[in-house]
Write a structure and sequence with these properties.
The chain is α+β, with helices and mostly antiparallel strands. The chain has one domain. It is built from two helices and seven strands, in the order H-E-E-E-E-E-E-E-H. A four-stranded antiparallel sheet has the order 1-2-3-6, with no helix packed on it. The chain has a three-stranded antiparallel sheet with strand order 5-4-7, covered by helices on one side. Strand 1 and strand 2 form a beta hairpin. The radius of gyration is 16 Å and the shape is globular.
Length: about 130
């Protein structure tokens, strides 16, 4: 029975379904030194943002409305933006369904990450984040 349950959850994950939530980890480094380390966990409509390390002293987040990808009607502006000091965590419950969190060492870098991701979705190119 345990093997059947494991196979079931594996099949769901292949289909993109994750009933237990999803965690996105963003890490970057230069010459072996961490410049950014962030974790965003989304489960049951609750998003937890955690800033573990940032060369600027804070992780900056831009929240992109998920329904904006592939749409010419988008303004390109995040629906929510904030900074979070290293070592802090923020729990959000009022974000749009399907939102995309973007993170950077500055507010501009976070906005740029969202813009690059939209460009990649619209053109099929891969976004590069140093």
């Amino acid at each position: 029975m345990g093997k059947l349950a494991t196979l079931f959850w594996f099949a769901l994950s292949l289909a993109g379904c994750n009933p237990h939530g999803q965690t996105t980890i963003v890490q970057s480094s230069i010459d072996g030194h961490t410049t950014l380390h962030s974790e965003v966990t989304i489960a049951k409509g609750v998003a937890t943002f955690r800033c573990i390390a940032s060369s600027s002293g804070a992780c900056h987040y831009a929240i992109d409305a998920g329904n904006c990808h592939r749409s010419a009607m988008c303004t390109g502006q995040p629906v929510h933006a904030f900074g979070l000091p290293v070592g802090q965590r923020l729990v959000e419950t009022d974000l749009p369904p399907g939102f995309t969190p973007c993170v950077g060492v500055s507010a501009e870098a976070a906005r740029s990450a969202c813009t690059d991701d939209k460009l990649a979705a619209n053109t099929g190119a891969a976004a590069a984040h140093p």
